Amino acid sequence: MSSSVKKEFLDLGRHPIANAFLKNKSDFDNEFIFDLKVCWDEETKLVSIKNFVEPERIFNEDYPYDTSNSFPMMKHFFDTAEMLNKRFQPKNVLEIGSNSGPFIENFNRLNSICVEPCDNFAKVTGNMGYKTYTDFWTTELSDKIKDENGERDLIYAANCICHIHDLDDTFKAVANLLSDDGVFVFEDPSLHKILERGSYDQIYDEHPYIFSVTALDNLLKRNGLIIFDVDNLSVHGGSNRIYAKKPNTPSNNTISHNVLQNLRKEDDFGINNFETYETFAKRVQFSKEELMRCLSNLRHNGKKIMCIGATAKSTTVFNYCGIGTDLIDVITDTTIDKQNTFAPGSHIPVVSPEDVDMLDYDYAYLGAWNFKDVIMKNQKEFIQNGGKFISHIPKVDTF
Ligand code: DWN
Questions:
Q1: Which ligand 1 atom minimizes the distance to the CA of 375?
Q2: Could you give phi then psi for residue 243, rounded to 5 degrees?
Q3: Residue 345 CA to ligand 1 centre (angstroms)
Q4: Hey, which residues does 155 pair with through a beta bridge?
Q5: 162: helix, coil or strand?
Q6: Residue-wise pLDDT tens digits, 293-352
Q7: Ligand 1 close to Cβ of residue 306 (< 6 A)
Q8: How far, in Å, CA of 180 to CA of 245, rounded?
């Protein structure tokens, strides 16, 4: 990307691929492991992991994260599609990282295109009747799509752009395909919220970058795009939806006051100061010590602990803290492809919620803390039976 100075502020230790669930015990010795360290770029203010993992290792036909397993996210994408249709009335749409189609399914098949490198999901949108390119997002692909289909009025990506290594190429590829009046809308976890909440578990191989509005403003500008609006969203523990366009477009998409407001808010928080990241690193270390103290004490007192949600986030927590079956017996997850596997690195068994009697457990650690409200609503019997939850967000606590 650039030759500017990247300052390391956090070392999370050795990690496996966050979503590489293991099918057999014989796979335990063959896991791909890398050093998960985190840096801050003094020039662009971009936060990134130090060692990128080849995308082909992560996004392939075995990639298990299916958005359609989360009802709240399905509603989020339906509402987002409705809002974008109303606000911009795009004649045609392209989605980068379309997964199993929860966003694109709200648009007409005839003028909507999907880009998805994971074969399993590309097949799903292909079967739904959407023209789908099974490929990674690059300027080369953008050129090909433009030649075959023409420019796009709306390019959308959710939880995808922060997964791509070459951001300059990514944004150039978008600018290349966008019609003169087109809009590029993308949403990813917010660095500000992660620093504020202490949610270090948003850092893993799939997230080479954690975006602030500040860094995106710098990066988009140098690639022929400008931010004209920002929405702060509650999904995934706090995300930002960025609206970008080409400068000097004929549209009346004037720059909203939200942009300056977000830049100011981030500056006030300390996004532009390295000390903020050093303070965060200390908080992460403290969170690990507290979580280990909490789980070990409970175990010592004979309590049984399980985990709800085999998330990428829980892979980070379990591997950073060194949590295994000595502390947590089992993880339940509603995603069929994750069931009857072992969690990456920790090797804790992952099963269907139907295979676990929650009344056998005293505590449930929230691997999917971002769905705390939904999970607690679904666990009335566990709660009535005296069951309690554990979360490390915003600080280690039982409730
Ligand atoms: O960007 C990414 C986000 C969108 O999704 C990816 N890099 C990977 C993935 O991250 P995650 O695994 O941390 O995402 P979620 O959405 O927090 O995953 C929730 C998991 O929990 C799913 O596997 C479904 C499961 N779940 C469950 O078992 N019971 C969810 C709910 C609400 C439940 O009640």
A1: 34
A2: -110, 120
A3: 18
A4: 94, 184
A5: helix
A6: 999 999 999 999 999 999 999 999 999 999 999 999 999 999 999 999 999 999 999 999
A7: no
A8: 8
